[in-house]
Amino acid sequence: MSEFTVTVLRFALFALLWLFVFLIAAVLRQDLFGPRVARSRRDRRRGRAASEAPAAAAHGSPPPDQQSAFSSSPTLVVTSGRQNGFSLLMSAGQLTIGRADDCGFVIEDDFASSHHARIYPQAGAWVVEDAGSTNGTYVGSARLTQPTRIEPGMPITIGHTTMELRA
Asked: Residue limits of the FHA domain (predicted)?
């Protein structure tokens, strides 16, 4: 074989090795953060979450013991993160927050789990609970270890996204 052929084969092997490294990195990224979602699909999910909240509120009234506490439903507002300014009217039922399509609030955060946390009414107050997420859910600066009562204005942090209830 000529010297030129050996050099070309060396560069081809070098390129194949780098291709292998990039494929490994792509597989690791997908395992850690989930598959990439096209931008147009995210916009459709964001619209779906906003339109489902009023529909969920119209499916009946809360039980009598919760009627007075939830006569005016608060709004969940994203105060920082990719979806800054997004708001969702809370109904009297449970709201699941995460990256999965079946969540009531689909969050666009690589550090959120598919089913990260849930917010639900209990005994006339709103409660936030971590759903066994990897990176945790924080109220203020405290990481949740058990269901925690939240008041309007208390920051709830999931990954790089911060949100709060507003009355």
From this structure: 95-144
